[in-house]
């Protein structure tokens, strides 16, 4: 580490170390569940108690991701100089993650993949209807479509925030692109990324074979309420 490394409060240093380890390890879940190819996909996690988050470096093989080469950024997406990993570029989606952390204070984790079935719905610009109880449990309704947006400015982040603010779903399918998920922490956002691909695949297969049967809104509401409360998930990211 170079001499210009910033010094953080010891509690913040411990939090950074924990989030670095979590974010590095959670990328393995994207591989395990078949959500990514090559170096695609990215997980980030907010550092509790600081205006910082940790994200994957750009273009590094999944086999080579370690806590030390994860990249520490401020909430504008700028790399903190002198910290481990800072010699590399962060994920090309860093600006979108940063925008979400700036505008959704309860969000502690963000994940992006190009998982196959979720991208297929995104390519049609079609929301995934809520036709299975597991989807009502996890997402409380349909998985919405976000606007078409090109990488390079705030438009992807803005599209995510505008679509998910006030929505029960922790997942958005950005049109012609793919899923972004949010959660109370990085692990919760990874869970949403796994679940959104699972429901995208199941509902796709169901529709291939025949018409979908809607679930009444009152039943969706009670399933969501029960799962979110009985199973003790934190309310803080539910809007
Ligand atoms: Zn992408």
> How many domain modules?
1
Report the end-to-end length measured between terminal Cα atoms: 41 Å
- What is the third-level CATH name, the topology? L-fuculose-1-phosphate Aldolase
The parts where pLDDT drops under 50 for at least 5 residues are 235-239
What is the CATH homology-level superfamily? Answer: Class II aldolase/adducin N-terminal domain
Task: State the share of residues found in helices, binned by percent.
Answer: 40-55%
The CATH top-level class label: Alpha Beta
| Overall form | globular
Q: Number of DSSP strands?
A: 7
Pfam family, one: Aldolase_II
Cofactor: Zn(2+)
EC number: 5.1.3.4
GO molecular function, one term: L-ribulose-phosphate 4-epimerase activity
Please outline what is shown here.
Belongs to the aldolase class II family. AraD/FucA subfamily. With 239 residues, the protein is of the alpha+beta class.
What does this protein structure show overall?
The structure is a single chain. The protein has 239 residues and is of the alpha+beta class. It has a single domain (10-230), classed as Class II aldolase/adducin N-terminal domain (L-fuculose-1-phosphate Aldolase, 3-Layer(aba) Sandwich), CATH 3.40.225. The protein has seven helices and seven strands; from the N terminus they run H-E-E-E-H-E-H-H-E-H-E-E-H-H. A seven-stranded mixed beta sheet has the order 3-2-1-4-7-6-5, with helices on both faces. The structure holds zinc ion (ZN). Its cofactor is Zn(2+). Keywords: Isomerase, Metal-binding, Zinc.
